[in-house]
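Tokens as discussed.
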């Protein structure tokens, strides 16, 4: 019976992960929070805990494969923008298919490397040699200095360090305000919490607006070629580097994949821009899947939650054991394999759809979708956070600074925690106990919100396309 339940969980998690990955604004944390809420309001059968956890991790790993598609093909500004992302540069050359293939291979090989490493560490932990827990305890007193050193290194690497420092500090202050005030119900523990509008503005809507405001912003026809454009050895090297970096991101607090990618590439030495772009895409994709896996297995290795999905699983399974950890890891491997096969066999369909889309109309529709979903799920203050985050997100491209500096949103609050001054800081600004009542989200309200957002965005897209065709 348990095998059947686990199989069903993997299949449904795979399907939901595809939808969440392709839908802007829907994060794994939303799905995970909803599943915990549904379980808490049901019979709470202990037999369902592991299948629900397997469902969540299947969503998480599938999402990591598929969310590269909207991030790759949406929000592509002109070539003059310094902070044009590597994948977007390939899009400009009509090589979106090759960029997608690099992402698929990086995600898959990063997952494979992570599976092997995780299984080895599980075996060692069973033999009372939990090396990751030992390393975590050794690093804990020095985490503030480790994160500070990484932040300074990434800022010093910028050509405009003053602006990079300003954006990093502004993002950090914004993170403290958003995470430490009661603007949005239930702080960061609700399904749609303060992180949703903040991250949507910093890294989503801001890029889309730049693309929309650009009169020359047009998506070139993408070539029907998805072949690997770097050697198999380079793919493996980039994937292994991404795995190690993703492991660090999954186990250390505050770091993001953008920080890890930039840091990893700088430590390996500069390359030509073309090969560097391809290496970056592969490395970043491997980081995503490795981060997803180790962020969840951190529950077992170091008894800490490092992602929204791991928080949800921790709420379901109070003390996870080696057998459950191994089951979760293998489920992620199966979901990852299915994701890779589907993407490799359906890439022509994706490219055909992309080539036939009205890009400007689609960009406008996605902005509408995100804004409306933020409004329906987080209310007036959620929209205000989105506006503030979007304004801040417009700064890096304007002043020629990497967008990864906005990860100060997470890094500075985390560094404040490990600095030993958090209590004084919180007391001075009276941030303690400032949580407003929870505003629960159920499946019905989520479905209604998504339907409203979808049809409104579809109307916007069709109207904009019609007006464009009449010109």
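Sequence:
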């Amino acid at each position: 019976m348990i095998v059947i339940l686990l199989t069903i969980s993997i299949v449904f998690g795979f399907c939901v992960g595809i939808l969440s990955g392709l839908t802007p604004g829907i994060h794994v944390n939303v799905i995970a929070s909803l599943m915990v809420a549904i379980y808490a309001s049901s019979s709470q059968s202990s037999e369902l805990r592991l299948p629900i956890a397997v469902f969540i991790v299947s969503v998480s790993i599938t999402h990591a494969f598929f969310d590269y598609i909207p991030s790759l093909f949406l929000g592509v500004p002109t070539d003059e923008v310094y902070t044009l992302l590597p994948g977007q540069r390939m899009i400009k050359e009509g090589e979106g298919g090759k960029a997608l293939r690099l992402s698929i291979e990086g995600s898959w090989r990063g997952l494979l490397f992570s599976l092997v490493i995780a299984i080895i560490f599980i075996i060692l932990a069973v033999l009372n040699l939990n090396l990751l827990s030992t390393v975590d305890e050794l690093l804990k007193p020095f985490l503030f200095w480790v994160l500070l050193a990484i932040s300074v290194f990434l800022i010093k690497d910028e050509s405009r360090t003053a602006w990079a420092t300003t954006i990093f500090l502004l993002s950090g202050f914004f993170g403290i305000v958003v995470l430490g005030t009661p603007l949005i119900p239930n702080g960061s523990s609700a399904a749609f919490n303060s992180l949703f509008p903040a991250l949507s503005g910093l890294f989503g809507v801001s890029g889309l607006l730049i693309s929309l405001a650009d009169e020359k912003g047009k998506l070139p026809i993408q070539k029907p070629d998805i072949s690997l454009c770097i050697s198999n050895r380079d793919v493996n090297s980039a994937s292994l580097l991404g795995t190690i970096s993703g492991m660090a991101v999954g186990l250390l607090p505050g770091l993001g994949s953008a920080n890890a990618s930039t840091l990893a590439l700088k430590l390996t030495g500069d390359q030509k821009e073309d090969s560097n772009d391809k290496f970056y895409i592969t490395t970043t994709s491997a980081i995503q899947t490795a981060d997803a896996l180790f962020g969840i297995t951190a529950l077992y290795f170091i008894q800490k939650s490092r992602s929204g999905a791991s928080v949800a699983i921790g709420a379901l399974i109070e003390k996870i054991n080696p057998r459950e950890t191994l089951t979760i890891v293998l489920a992620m491997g199966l979901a990852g394999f299915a994701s890779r096969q589907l993407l490799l066999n359906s890439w022509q369909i994706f490219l055909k759809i992309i080539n036939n889309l009205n890009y400007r109309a689609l960009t406008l529709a996605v902005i509408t979708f995100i804004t409306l979903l933020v409004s329906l799920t987080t209310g007036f203050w959620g929209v205000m956070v989105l506006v503030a985050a979007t304004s801040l997100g417009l700064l890096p491209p304007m002043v020629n600074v990497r967008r990864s500096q906005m990860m100060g949103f997470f890094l500075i609050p985390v560094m404040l925690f490990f600095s030993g001054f958090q209590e004084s800081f919180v007391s001075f600004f009276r941030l303690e106990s400032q949580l407003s009542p929870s505003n629960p989200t159920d499946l019905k309200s989520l479905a209604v919100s998504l339907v409203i957002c979808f049809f409104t965005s579809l109307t916007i897209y069709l109207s904009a396309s019609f007006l464009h065709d009449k010109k």
